[in-house]
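The aim of this short unit is practical: by the end, you should be able to scan a pair of folded records and say something sensible about each. We start with the first protein, listed as its amino acid sequence and then its structure tokens.
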Amino acid sequence: MTSPYGNKQPSALSPRHAAALAVYSVMAGQSLNQVLPALEPRVSADDRGFFRDLSLGSCRWFFRLNALTKILLKHPFQEEDQDLHALLIVGLYQLLIQGKAPHAAVHATVDVCEEMGKGYAKSVVNACLRRYGREYENLLPPLDDNPVTATSHPKWLVKLLTKAWPDQWQAILDGNNERAPLCLRVNQRQLSREDYLVLLAEADIDAHCGVYSEDAIYLTESCDVTQLPGFDQGFVSVQDEAAQLAAQLLAPADGTRVLDACAAPGGKTCHLMERADIRLLAADADAERLKRVDENLQRLGLVADVVCADVSQPGDWWGSEQFDAILLDVPCSATGVIRRHPDIRMLRRREDIDALVEVQQTLLTQAWAMLKPGGRLLYATCSVLPQENSDQIVKFVDGHDDAELVTLDKPWGIACNAGRQMFPTAGGHDGFYYALLSKQQ
């Protein structure tokens, strides 16, 4: 797909127009992380929350809403009018998911056709939305009978999850459709979790402690985190509770040399340094994302060695000094954080998983060579797929006589054939996987 506007873009956008462009861009293969920062400033400040909800929500429910558009449209939109298809998705999201008053939502959505310079489509968009309003009681039941359209996930992912997790797949899919809570990580170099809860209470911000991470606090309502007490001073960072468990599990001792092998954007890097006085090297192959590591370290007043390096190519940057501990948070399908990044379900493909598994195998093999005998390596993903997780670790341990799997007897997640798997939890943590390996002397 190419942009229907060429290089000429309107300077200001209504929230519905901006959301249609966001969804259209994801349909064309771009991520919301790429498109939202460019679109949001062109929406009035008062409408930006609505715009983000329309954009994320339309992607979250895309497969369900897209199936509905195919029923409602007599003829599909042409290639040059796929932005109108995206607009229809946004319109249906308002009616089906948000429960907006039909008259106002339909009228405002149809008006966007003029904003797009495509007034000729007003009658089509209007007819589809009004037909849904008349016939939804008959249109929706068939969609509810198919897990793809009932839960709004791609067919390949539904198939993989039902096979891998026959008892949990429905809860996983339902969890992906929940809104993720805002979770903070308290920097206990600065103050205790209990002291920070007091600061939040004094600021009339309702919050409670996480269950599994010793540093986690959940806010009852999301907010501008930069306005939180002590944020600029490094009192807290935003990090999911499951991700916070990495520092607790690896638990490097003071004075040890630690590698964070795929460090960007630096949440786990900083957490490791908050919990111990270590010599840490943060490596990542993405120079742009690596800037976030520096920013996070600076805000928190921490110092680490940061290098732009591909861990799969150690000959380009690594000498020979091995590490006492390694955190290997590998690139993955991100199927455990779909609720935070709903466009994943539109962008990820089945063939991506096999390619990622190969990358993970290479990273694991190369990182293992950098670990001292007696050292520990923590393998982590934000995936819920065994191919990237327990299957990966079983294969690695079977092929390395010096690799011993450390049993994680924890109150979170479930034990699988290797490591421990967490699933997205309503009001709680994301989906995550951990396996801890010890290198034998």
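Turning to the second protein, read its sequence before its tokens, just as you did above.
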Amino acid sequence: MRQVSTLALGGAAVLGAVLGVAWWVGLPEGAGASGFAWFALALTVLQAAAVVLLWNRDGRRTLGLVLLFAVVFRLGAWAWPTDLSSDLYRYLWDGRVQLAGHSPYGAPPDAASLESLRDDAVWPHINRKDVLTVYPPGAQLFFLSLAAVGLRTVGALKAAAILAELAGLLLLAAALSRRRIPLGRLAIYAWSPLVVAEVAVSGHLDAFVLPLLLLALWAADRGAHTLVGLVLGFAMLMKLYPVLLFAAIPKESRWRALSAAGLLALVLYGAYFAVSGPAVLGFLPDYPRSGEDFNIGLRGLVEWVLGFVIPHARTWAMLLCGAALVGVVAWIARHPERDGSESAARIALAFVLLLPTAMHPWYALWMVPFLCVYPSPAGLWLAATLPLSYLKYGPPDGPMPAWVTALIWIPPFIALMLAAMPAWTRRRGRS
């Protein structure tokens, strides 16, 4: 048995070394986002093989192996150019604007009043220079903090993202250990090309939200639900989706957590509202109307069907998918699992499948840690295939290839239907 374990760890180490070389060598110049899509697919195949080898492996050697290569991958990816997304330039800009004494909600980047803040390193790469920022007050406070401590370059921000996300990785390892889940399954998250790219290459804000979600899980394991509320509250003030996770908190503690989060939201929104007024919402009210239909899943199918029978199919499809998401989360809130992380895993998967707006790959980052605790075929498939959505950027401003949409979205729904069939059959038999 020990020999089998040693062989499994040895095989995983070899695969880790190959993955590490790939991340450090990177892509040829000019490969772009579409080149990354194929690169990520190849790496996901290797990662899947490593996960199979590590699936039931536990102990310090396994944890050390997974963590070692997790660091290696992220350090290699840190040096990549930010070709996949320009979001981090907006983070840097919003922090710079606040450090100069302006409100981030006061004027868009191309406003004449902010002309003195422009430079050659950040300004040219900002997306949508003519609109206000979309990021809520928690994110803005965070951007200001980064700028205030001197993290004002792309490299510094990406390094901070890596460090924050690795802290979350340690919290996830503790959650697995507490549940007596083999630590080898940490490789589902730690070695994921989706995670490595969106954290270390693109430096997305989600890299800083992830450790907050995992800190909330740590606090929930200890029954500290007021702390859970504060942590989730700040997380939802950075990105909105963590608000859904309040449904995973036990009913008897939910209002206490919501009250703590609500108080924090009132303070932060109040502080920025005092300076910016209603503009504190930024671009957010316009986001659903922006026509940013990148990689839409179920909503795209619903919109296509409705388009044959009613006008304004896009609006109705968004409303229907939004209502479905709210309905699923409400059902989970009424029937929470004993282990809140299982409810959280279901909520995150529902978010990815039913989100009525765009589904950029980094929107799914928060789903991946929970796959280590409660792996689902649908979630694992999405984590593996979502990087293929970057193939949209093969031809300039081209459409998403139909086969990519089908490959990403059809198998998860089939997997969920197959998983639901035994329960449905049992209920039918009782009736």
